[in-house]
Hints:
By secondary structure, the chain is α+β, with helices and mostly antiparallel strands. It has helices at residues 3-28, 31-36, 46-67, 111-116, 181-185, 188-207, 223-252, 254-266, 284-302, 313-320, 325-332, 337-347; strands spanning 91-100, 108-109, 123-125, 134-135, 138-139, 151-159, 165-170, 175-177. It is elongated. The relative contact order is 0.08.
Amino acid sequence: MNHVWHTRILVSCIAIAAVIDAGEEALSRAPHVVAKLPDLWWLHYAPLSLLSIAAILWIVRLLQNWTSPNIKPQAQTQPLKPAIELAPSKLRIHSASYAPIDGEGDDYPVAEFLSQITNGDSLVLDNIQNQSFQTPSHNFVPKDPKVGTKKRLLVEYSFGNEKTTTIERREESRIVLPEDPFLKVFNLLQLRAFHLAGRLRAFSEKMGPRPDADWATGDKSNPADWMAMKIAERRGIQKPWFSRLKHRYEKEFSHDITEIMHDFGETGLDVGLLVPHSSTVSTEHDVRQVANTLDSLAIELNHPNIQPPDLDDDTIAKYNAMGSSEMKNLLQHFPDAGKAVDEAYARKGVGGDAS
Length: 355
C-alpha cells in the first residue's frame, strides 16, 4: 500500500474512534436523547474496532520498515536538469611515456593519466616520480622502470591550434603545460636566479638612494673645518641607513643567496663573485652586483663563456646567432630580464623559495 494512503487511513481510524468515543460519552449524560434514538449497541464497539484496525496498520507499516530499511518514500518526480556541458580543453596530450633516461628498462605509457589530471586548459605535475602516476582506480607506473637509474617523462602535446610540441622532463622535476615561453628557454635553477635577482632590484629600489649631508650649507670660512664637519654629518646620516641595508639583506636574502650559489657551483660555473656577498653586503652597489651576477650565471648555464650583453651591436649580434627568439627578445632588454621572468615565474605559482 502506498505509504501516504497507509498513513491517512491510520490517522483517520484513530480520529473517528476518538470522535465516536466522545459522542458515546456525551450521550451517556443525556438519557432522554438516547431514549428517542434507535438501538445503537454497535456504537460501543466501534472505537475499539477502529483502534484495532489502526494498530494492525501500524504493525504492518513497522514490519515493512524492518524488512525493507533502504526503501525510501517516493518523492514527487522532478524533471532532471540538463548536465552542464564543459568546453573541451584546449590542451591535448597526444602521447606520453615514463622510462629510464638510458633507454633500457620498462617504458610506461602515461598519456591517459596526464589527460585525467588536466584542469581546464592546463596541467601541472609537481615532483615527477614513480609514484606520481596514480589515480584512485589505477596505477600507471606499477613498479620502478629501472631501479637505480634516473627516469624521464616524455610528452607530446598541442594547445589550441598550435603545432604539436614534444618536451622532456627529468625525474624529480616539475612539468607545466602549456609551457610559458620563458619556461621553454630556462630551467628551474635559472628561473630561481632571475626571480631572486628581481627581488634584489626591488629591495634596492625600496631602500632608495643613500642619504647625504647638505653640502650647500655651513660656514666655509675655514674649508678644513667645514669639510670635517660635513663628513661627520654625512657619516651620522648614513650610518642608520647602511645598518638597515645590511640587516635587511641578511634577514631576507642571505639564505637564498647561499643556497643558489652552491646550486650554481655544483653545475661547474664560477660563483666567485657571489662568495663575498652570500651572507652580507656593505653598500647598495653590492646588492646590484649580486643581482647582475645571478642574471649572468643563469644565462651562462645555457651558454658557457658568454657574458650578458651590454647592449652594444656586436654583443647583441652574438646573441642573435643563438637562434632562439625568446632568448633574443629577453637579452635585448636585459636590464628588465629579472622583472620579466619574475612575472612569468609568478604566473606559474612558483614561490621565491622554490628549489
